Amino acid sequence: MKKILIVDDEVNVGLLLSKFLTRNNFEVATANNGARAMELLKSDEYDLVLCDFRLEDTDGREMLVHIKGNYPKTGVIIITGYSDIKMAVELIKMGAYDYITKPLYPDEILNTITKAIETRNALNNDEPVAAITPKPTSAAAKKANFAPEFVPGQSRASRELIRQIELVAPTNYSVIIMGESGTGKESAAKSIHLNSPRRDQPFIAMDCGSLTKELAQSEFFGHEKGSFTGALYTKIGHFEMANGGTLFLDEVGNLSYDIQASLLRTVQERKVKRIGSTKEIDLDVRIIVATNENLQDAIQKGRFREDLFHRFNEFGIYMPALRERGTDIMVLANHFLKMANDELGRGVTAFSPEVEECFMNYRWPGNIREMKNVVRRAALLTEGEEVQMKALPLEISINSKYMSAPQETAAPVSLQSAEQATPKEPKHDLKNAALEAEYDTILKVLREVNFNKTKAAEILKIDRKTLYNKMKAINLGK
């Protein structure tokens, strides 16, 4: 069995690589700094060292010089970020076999290691050995079991997301999924569950954003009948329901500090006790949490417990915003159009070129959730087989008009250019002029805040209800 030493100061990376390579019939040791790696090299012989270029106490250059000088038969592969590729190429000239870049992809890692060991055997005149055949990854061995609502894209951001899901799914790690609202964090969590050994056990989702402080204890841990006023029956909590499977906690940053303390105790001890009961129940639950806020900031502000964060943060996944996914925008749009056709019994088959351009230029503040709603609405309004601009919500179609005009000379969209414009007075009528000025001001502010009506109302110094009434009066809105 070939022996590999992994040197990386990111503990999660080291653990994941170790598990992955062990499953592929390698004997693996890990070190989180250069000093520990040198101790291991002294005490044992390794076929290959995978070394991160940036370490706390040294760097890849010094490690390479040390290994080549003292252990010439040991191969070295450098792990690096894109910003250090130039340096990694220089290290290859100094004797490193190859480099791999973060994020780490299983196929790339395994193929590079295989070739490195074969090259090492040839250079060291070892006895010929059969070529190491990489075990197929889950993606190659069988089609990944993504959640029905998860749409795998082809953009670089989507491919990286899929790789991360496939990498962490077979492990038992707790995962934090970060991303804007509407990016599909729950679908990613379901996909992790479906590709894990727990796939046949329950997947229980819990929206922490809707929990009151009073209800949270009961929802998490359950209660016995009569344990408090209103406890008319025994209730099983979400932890107990998810036992053996996966518990998904959405918007975990909204939990009160008191509930976080109770949650920490349960996560640490892996036991749960219903309110009003003295019996502890053993737990075997994988926890995946999601948040659309920066929990590190919440920790600094005293709103989130640092110890709980570290319990959850065994592996982190970033959900890219829709505007970061490039050509995936139309992949998703066509997927949702097919869904809408099936739901509504319609025969809308395509989007007009103008609509496609509009979709690609729009910032999608509501991300995938917003797109799904926009496409469903458009399918309902479309007469014929092709979605036209008039079927889109006004904030999207108007945004497209602004994007297509030079910013320096673009004139505000007047009421007369909108198909359903309300004012009918002559252009130079004083009342009409006032309405147009109000229209332009409201539209300008809405665009500045990506059509977030709460923020727009604050900037305009009016309440939301007044803003909605004004938007309705000038046909600016859905």
TrEMBL record:
State the residue spans of region: Disordered: 409-429
Q: Name one GO molecular function term.
A: sequence-specific DNA binding
Instruction: Specify the Response regulatory domain's residue ranges.
Output: 3-117
Q: What GO biological process terms are annotated to this protein in UniProt?
A: phosphorelay signal transduction system; regulation of DNA-templated transcription
Task: Keywords in alphabetical order, please.
Answer: Activator, ATP-binding, DNA-binding, Nucleotide-binding, Phosphoprotein, Transcription, Transcription regulation
Q: Where on the chain is 4-aspartylphosphate found, per UniProt?
A: D52
Pfam families per UniProt: AAA_lid_14, HTH_8, Response_reg, Sigma54_activat
Q: Which SUPFAM superfamilies match?
A: CheY-like, Homeodomain-like, P-loop containing nucleoside triphosphate hydrolases
Q: Which residues form the Sigma-54 factor interaction domain?
A: 151-380
Name used for this protein in its record: Sigma-54-dependent Fis family transcriptional regulator
Q: Which organism is this protein's natural source?
A: Mucilaginibacter myungsuensis
